[in-house]
Amino acid sequence: MNEIIPEKKLTIKDFTSDQEVRWCPGCGDYAILKCMQRTLPELGATKENTVFVSGIGCSSRFPYYMDTYGFHTIHGRAPAVATGLKITNPELDVWMITGDGDGLSIGGNHMLHVLRRNVDINILLFNNKIYGLTKGQYSPTSEPGMKTPSTPMGSIDPALNPISFALGSGARFVARTVDTAQKHMPGVFAAAKNFKGAAFVEILQNCLVYNDDAWSDLTEKSVVKDRQLLLEHGAPMIYGKEGDKGIIFNPKTMHLEAVTIGENGVTEADILVHDSGNLMMARMICEVGFGDGMPVAMGVLYDNPADVSYDIAVNDQVAAVANSGVTLKDIMHRGQTWTV
Amino acid sequence: MSDTQILESAVVRFAGDSGDGMQLTGSQFTSSTALAGSDLSTFPDFPAEIRAPVGTTFGVSAFQINFGARAIKTVGDQPDVLVAMNPAALKVNIDFLRKGGTLVVDTGTFTKRNLAKAGYESNPLEGDGLEDFQVIELDISRMTQEAVKPFGLSNKDGLRSKNMWTLGLMLWMFSRSRKPIADWLENKFAKLPNIAAANVAALNAGHAFGETAELSSSVKRYQIGAAPVESGLYRTVTGAQAISWGLVKGGELAGLKIMLGSYPITPASPILHTLSSLKELGVITFQAEDEIAAVCAALGAAYGGALGITSSSGPGIALKGEAMGLAISTELPLVIVNSQRGGPSTGLPTKTEQSDLYQAIYGRNGDAPMPVLATRSPADCFDTAIEACRLAVKYMTPVMLLTDGFIGNAAEPWKLPDLDSYADFKVNFKAGPDEEGFNPYARDAKTLARNWAIPGTKGCEHRIGGIEKDYDTGHISYDADNHQKMTDVRADKISGIADDIADQIIEQGTANSPLAVVGWGSTFGPISEAVKIARSEGIDVAHVQIRHLFPFPANLGAMLGGFKHIVVPEMNKGQLKTVLRDVYLVDAEPLNKVSGMPFKIEEILDVIRARAGAEAAA
Question: What ranges in A9-155 are assigned the alpha helix state H?
């Protein structure tokens, strides 16, 4: 009788490569890396079927530190490489690591199309609102007025909202989390991994050297509860230290508004209930919290899978006609031939 | 027929408005000619605009075919017959026609308005200027309308069959069968039987006109027989078809599925179209959002264990440069096909040129060597594509496969190869780690190719990327000596390919000929014919056509060193000439042409004669 040896349960160590991590001490990337190394074994991932594909930038060094397959590609092009890989082998669990510069500036076009096509990969965009590896220039998500080496008089570019961009591109899964939110992040990773299609996750990440306190106005312990709205499908959008604040939809202005339950006749029944399958709700809730006195929405904002992801559809088309016995010779002999 | 003249070969050029269907007419004439067993070479010569304003000179589209009862290697220097469907077509093409040649014109289009559009102040058919030619003036428009009258088509729709009327006349003139074309029409318009019948009627009417009309007695009917070729099964093939099929065969021989990442661009798109139609063979194609994504997706596919392919033309290849560098650095196999066109920048999208050789050999940042191969003819594309695949997987390297717009679109008869006769080059992926683990940069001692393990392989998890890696471990390394070592090994790996490719052969002449004409790519035809004629005139001249442009075959240096004079005809400003001078310090003399047209035999022959004459005088 064959003895069945149970597979050894993988741990954080199995997903940690022997490479020395070279981010700046205190970088938010460390926390994301640790969380990933810890979460993957919990989600039942295997090392050999997991691939990290990245572009260029601080965040894109991520694959070197994961003891899985990894491809550190070129600036902005990770979505295209990941698409080619996933089409070739849909069995792989492909994660893409990018940043606000890599993913939204030089790679903005590819990001649009990988989301539009709905390729079944998990995209983690580390948003620190700055170019770190090139030493501190402003990025597409930097706030206007930011003084950097390339904007000595302050940036005049409006800032891009990554989630809004993703939804506009046709993404069917978008989520947001924070580098330091070690309890929140694993759930977001799990939801992204389970989603069959392109899953877009914005991770608010701090750059200690070039943009310290990038997100402290919503991540400082003292303000977290008032500045972050933790979304849960089917639950009312309630937040605040006292748990008495909520989000309502004002049909007259077509805007979301922050209200206090018990004030001005507002009751809990007035508060919006999060529906992660509602695109319009996702479009509205992703925009709030940036300079409008409202909280920033965290968690899964939108989760609405298509019938089939792109990589599967590509292979289905081939499978529908392949193995019909037609050979290259048959193709070459099709049409008019003659014998001499 | 007693008045049928037997010809060894003839050149016919169909010219008309972009909307007149000249490419279709030409390709159908080609089919009929191929089926008759003549050897042939075609040259579709069309404008960049899809439908330029009707009647203008810049909207003229032409299709030239050279066919004969002998081996045909060029499209012919000068047409013997020119068909001009309107004044603009006459104006643009009349200078090509050989003196004494036959000009067929559709007088129905020679209206005041069309003459003005073509820039004619007066009707050229009425004045002087065409006396060197046999002019056949026919109101093809009217006769077509009469032929299709029974089918109740609108005036406009009826006139669409003009090209078939004209084709019918040409089929009569060259004693070709109408049957395959009638069959093709009935198949193409199977759902529109009325249209099919109208076109067949026009075709028959044109043919009947030739048989019955009292054309001037000087207009002869011609018979061009079958060319003496090897026995076998033949078909006509374009370069784009043959490349696509060769890539599929290459994938089979490597034991890999093939994945094409591409973005539409003239004149490379037919390769995307052809491969996209081969899903039956398991071919995966991906039309990417841009050229960069196309090559990156192909590279991602290669990383995943497929044979990655990308196809484009010069401007697109420029965009792919950085990703090619990544393929070189990560040492993944990739085939990059460049269907060259006139440059720089957008240049001449529909016209042929071979001016991307520097780009192919040198056009990347860093010391980034990559094998470069060139196809010489449509049929040659098949074997050259297979060779590109072989080198890519055996040496774990991207390979540049150069073809051009002329080869891609031109057709020639092709003896279908025995597909079982090709030796395979199966890839052996690493199935698991060795005792000491898995090192992606451990190399084969002979080829210097690195280990290839694909995602999904247990125990071989590894990271690769564009950052320099340690020679021994493959980990990131910024060490100075290591970079020297890695740069050297990448160069040595590619230069070592010289010993694994066929020796350079001399097509005509000998190693002792004092003069050699050295070419690459689609200049093969005109050089071959020019050298043949020169040799028949007693000039001792050799012809060398190089397929492997980087690295060169191992014996090429010694071979070139043996010639006293070397002339290098190229459709650029002298790129191979420069590379030959650099690599071998030989006195290669340029012969350049960048008019968007292939070389004429005469242009190369003149230079051969001049060199031979100078030699004799010296």
Answer: 28-42, 78-88, 100-101, 108-117
**Model confidence band, residue B116 (pLDDT cutoffs 50, 70, 90):** very high
Q: State in words which class domain A12-214+307-313 has.
A: alpha beta
Q: What does DSSP say about strands B334-340 and B398-404: parallel, antiparallel, or unpaired? A: parallel
What separation in angstroms does the CA of B460 have from each of B203, B291, B362, B427, B453? Answer: 65, 31, 34, 17, 6
Is this complex scored with an ipTM above 0.95?
Answer: yes
Structure tokens at B73: 């290697």
Cα angle, residue B451 at apex, residues B450 and B455 outer, rounded to 5°: 130
Q: In sequence order, what are the beta bridge partners of B259? A: B284, B308
Contact of A250 with chain B, judged by CB distance below 8 Å, is answered with: no
Render B21-59 in DSSP notation, one character per residue. -HHHHHHHHHHHHHHTT-EEEEEEE--SSSSPSTT-GGG
Q: Best residue in B243, B451, B461 to probe A by mutation, most A CBs within 10 Å? A: B461
SS3 B394: helix
**d(C-alpha B546, C-alpha B128), whole Å:** 47
- Here the tokens at position A73 are 């590609």
Which pLDDT tens digit goes with each residue over B406-450?
A: 999 999 999 999 999 999 999 999 999 999 899 999 999 999 999
**Closest Cα partner for A112 from A88, A137, A86, A83?**
A83
Is residue B594 within 8 A of residue B607, CB to CB? The reply is: no
The HSE-up count of residue A22 (CA atoms within 13 Å, CB side) is 11
Q: What is the spatial distance between Cα A199 and Cα B143, in angstroms, rounded to a whole number?
A: 64
Query: For the CA atoms of chain A, what is the radius of gyration?
Result: 23
Buried residues in B233-261 as b, exposed as e (16+ CB within 10 A): ebbbbbbbbbbbbbbbbbbbbbebbbbbb
* Pairwise CB contact (< 8 Å): B280 & A110: no
Q: Could you report the per-residue pLDDT of B245-302, keeping only the tens digit for each?
A: 999 999 999 999 999 999 999 999 999 999 999 999 999 999 999 999 999 999 999 9
- Pairwise CA distance, residues B196 & B192, whole Å: 6
Question: Where do the H-state alpha helices sit in B397-479?
Answer: 405-409
> Across the interface, do A84 and B280 touch by the CB < 8 Å criterion?
no
Distance between CA atoms of residues B612 and B606, nearest Å = 10
Q: Is residue B2 very low, low, confident or very high in pLDDT (cuts 50, 70, 90)?
A: very low
Cis (ω within 30 of 0) for the bond into B344? yes
Question: What values do phi and psi take at A238, rounded to 5?
Answer: -110, 140
Torsion of CA B481, B487, B492, B498, to 10 degrees: -170
> Strand pairing of A337-339 and B233-238?
antiparallel
Give A-chain residues touching B31 at CB under 8 angstroms: 336
Contact B348/B342 with Cβ under 8 angstroms? yes
Beta bridge partners of B3: none
Name the residue in chain A with its Cα closest to that of B457: A48
How many CA atoms within 13 Å lie on the side-chain side of B233?
A: 11
Any B CB within 8 A of A318 CB: yes
Kind and range of the H or E run holding B14: strand B9-17
B210: burial class by Cβ within 10 Å (0-12, 13-18, 19+)? middle
Q: What is the largest CA-CA distance in chain A?
A: 94
Q: What is the pLDDT of residue A2?
A: 61
Cβ-contact B91, B119 below 8 angstroms = yes
- Whole-angstrom distance between the N-terminal and C-terminal Cα of chain A? 65
Contacts of B299 in chain A (CB under 8 A): 73, 81, 84
- Residue with the two structure tokens 């058919």: B125
- pLDDT tier for residue B600 given thresholds of 50, 70 and 90: very high
